[in-house]
Write a structure and sequence with these properties.
Number of helices: 9
Strand order of the largest sheet: 1-2-4-3-5-16-6-15
CATH superfamily of the largest domain: Zn peptidases
CATH class of the largest domain: Alpha Beta
Bound molecules: nickel (II) ion
Number of strands: 16
Structural class: alpha/beta
Shape: elongated
């Protein structure tokens, strides 16, 4: 299909996408509990004669075979999970599931991919190889649905030439796409430290092994990882956001628990930094005569966009919508389990604007009860997916 045909198809598929999106928005489900969402997706695929199977529990993997070498594949991925947020948008299709809301736009991603697949399926003889539509569960929480998808090795035996993920961006106007070559989003690991000493009467610390003072020293010393160990060229964040020393004015507790997040943009440094965190916590504890046990959970890797693929897709989007429709994104310290795909396959994660016309509306922020993306953006999101499916 050429540019004009793609735009026409996207425009006519957009009405269905709005309908899908409103249904999904009304019935949001939390990570790894996307049962009804998966069934809804399956129903639409079935009605359109698109083959699929379940994956990673509640996920759905659709497959459309085109022409030529069918082992040559492109994966279009949408996430499906919602967040534990009480919706306060007042929309007529607001969440019916109390305390759960599509506050990160994953309803938009799922709806756009569903609509795009129906178009692709009708024109599949113009597609090179195989297109997978991956409706992925559990993006929002560890271990990330992407890691569970890949554990099942669904693309073994295929040459995957691209894995594509798109995400809403309320800071961009509708019709604008954001790209960034190379490193884009941070890795994210959870750090938990328990400092164990010997509690007792706070008036007689000389008889105790005080874990509170030691824990305070550990929080401070850990900042060396960022200020002294990290290469200034690699953005790094280590934040301790939770610290519990549950004693009293006159009671020193036996132990102190703390937890935080470690984020960075380089996998080699990420592995080294974890060793530094462990060493600093343990040796600081030891200097205070107490023990520290350090647990660092394996979180999401950083999202690294394939340079060639990013250039190609942003050029295709510019050719369709003009140079003003493409902007360069800044590094982002938030994380995405899409990083798991970027480690294995040439991948691209880009943003599409849902902010409406500049000054015309307020889409709110991601992960808030007021988040209200512009539905007109669905047409652009579908165009993006079709442009990739038919163009790369
Ligand atoms: Ni999200």
């Amino acid at each position: 299909m050429d540019k004009a045909e793609i735009r026409q198809e996207a425009a006519s598929a957009a009405a269905s996408a709005v309908e899908y999106r409103r249904h999904l928005h009304k019935y949001p489900e939390l990570s790894f509990k996307e049962e009804a969402t998966g069934q809804y997706v399956a129903g639409i695929l079935e009605a359109n004669g698109i083959g699929f199977r379940k994956i990673a529990g509640t996920g759905i993997l659709a497959k459309i075979e085109g022409r030529g070498d069918l082992k040559n594949a492109v994966v279009l991925r949408a996430d499906m999970d919602a967040l534990p947020v009480h919706e306060a948008t007042g929309l007529e299709f607001a969440s019916c599931n109390e305390g759960v809301m599509h506050a990160c736009g994953h309803d938009m991603h799922t709806a756009a991919l569903l609509a795009a697949l129906t178009v692709i399926n009708r024109h599949k003889k113009q597609i090179e190889g195989t297109i997978f539509g991956l409706f992925q569960p559990g993006e929002e929480i560890n271990p990330g649905g992407a890691s569970l998808v890949l554990k099942e090795k669904p693309f073994d035996g295929y040459t995957v030439r691209a894995v594509i993920g798109e995400h809403v961006d309320p800071d961009l106007p509708t019709g604008v796409f954001g790209f960034r070559e190379g490193k884009y989003m941070a890795s994210s690991d959870e750090v938990r430290i328990t400092v164990s000493g010997e509690g007792g009467h706070a008036a007689m610390p000389h008889r105790l092994k005080d874990p509170v003072v030691a824990a305070a020293a550990i929080v401070t010393s850990l900042q060396q990882v960022v200020s002294r160990n990290a290469n200034p060229d690699i953005p790094t964040v280590l934040s301790i956001g939770r610290i519990i020393a549950d004693g009293s004015t006159n009671v020193i507790p036996d132990s102190v628990f703390m937890a935080g997040t470690f984020r960075t943009f380089d996998e080699e440094w990420r592995a080294q930094a974890k060793k530094h965190i462990r060493r600093i916590a343990e040796s600081t504890a030891s200097a205070y005569g107490v023990d520290a046990s350090v647990n660092i959970s394996k979180g999401f890797p950083s999202v690294v966009n394939n340079t060639e693929l990013t250039r190609k897709v942003s050029e295709l989007i510019s050719a369709t919508f003009g140079n003003d429709a493409v902007v360069k994104l800044a590094l982002r310290p938030t994380a995405e389990d899409f990083g798991f795909y970027t480690q294995l396959y040439p991948s691209l994660f880009y943003r599409f604007g849902v902010g409406g016309k500049p000054g015309s509306r307020n889409a709110g922020r991601l992960h808030t009860a007021q988040f209200d993306p512009d539905e007109n953006a669905l047409e652009y999101a579908i165009t993006g997916l079709l442009t990739i499916a038919f163009g790369i």
